[in-house]
Design brief:
single chain, alpha/beta, Rossmann fold, 2 domains, 6-stranded mixed β-sheet, 8 helices, binds adenosine-5'-triphosphate, Nitrate/sulfonate/bicarbonate ABC transporter ATP-binding protein, ATP hydrolysis activity
Length: about 240
């Protein structure tokens, strides 16, 4: 029995004939782990997520996904329908026939994301953090085993980002999803990820397992020795990239 939920094998991809983006990239992604994907701007992080999501097709190699449901994708822009309420935005994949969550399940995602009482509001009546919560709740209706997030919290201020980091940890703890998120923040990666993955020159340059003491409150974790060590190791790997 394999414990892998996704295996990328010798993956190559380019948008045109001149600029290769990924070149022979291989990655065994462990089920239930949180990965942060880092690397220089333009190195292909979003492209790699799009390949895993099946939004792009590899030129060479394979993406083997051993899960019952396709991955769910959360973008930096929450991309909510402005004319639909919070409830109907969350229900959208179900309304489109792309997901099959019951009303009770949709209500449970609303609660999990702390959106109780906001169901009838429209996106224009929400803060940035609330919009992102709606976007994540909408992704959860797909009951995906793999959640892909492309710089989900980049546009948020730091206290809100910290709050949503903790929310993502509690969702993962509860739903046991495999999470891959792209970030430019070394500190976000150092706090959230089980492993930081550095992409460079079309390949994975390093996969750094990170240590955490999740029994500590988040503020203590963020000032812990382990956190500083995680950040230092990621900085070093990025410097080498
Ligand atoms: N649809 C597209 N058509 C052509 N080229 C593209 C397309 N999307 C991205 N690219 C190019 O592919 C390269 C990788 O882009 P990608 O968005 O994957 O990088 P990234 O590492 O996520 O960047 P950033 O950190 O700046 O978001 C870039 O050079 C980009 O200009």
């Amino acid at each position: 029995m394999t414990n892998q939920s996704i295996t990328l094998k010798d993956l190559s991809f380019a948008y045109d004939d001149i600029h290769p983006i990924l070149t022979g990239l291989s990655w065994d992604i462990q089920k239930g782990h949180i990965y942060s994907l880092l690397g220089k701007s333009g190195c292909g992080k979003s492209t790699l997520l799009r390949l895993i999501a099946g939004l792009e097709t590899p030129d060479k190699g394979s993406v083997d996904i051993q899960t019952n449901t396709p991955p769910a994708f959360v973008f930096q822009e929450p991309a909510l329908l402005p004319w639909a309420s919070v409830y109907h935005n969350i229900k959208l994949p179900v309304s489109l026939g792309a997901a099959s969550a019951s009303t009770a399940e949709i209500e449970s995602y609303i609660s999990l994301l702390g959106l109780d009482g906001l169901e009838d509001r429209y996106p224009a009546q929400l803060s940035g953090g609330q919009k992102m919560r709606v976007s994540i709740a909408r992704a959860l209706t797909q009951k995906a085993e793999i959640l892909l997030l492309d710089e989900p919290f980049a546009a948020l201020d730091e206290p809100l980002r910290f709050e949503l980091n903790d929310l993502l940890l509690s969702l993962q703890d509860r739903l046991k999803m495999t999470v891959i998120f792209v970030t430019h923040s070394v500190y976000e990666a150092a706090y959230l990820a089980d492993a930081a993955v550095v992409l460079n020159m079309g390949k994975l340059q390093s996969i750094l397992p990170l240590d955490h003491n999740r029994s500590l409150p988040s503020s203590k974790q963020r000032s812990s020795h382990q956190f500083a060590d995680n950040a230092a190791r990621i900085f070093r790997a990025l410097e080498e990239a």
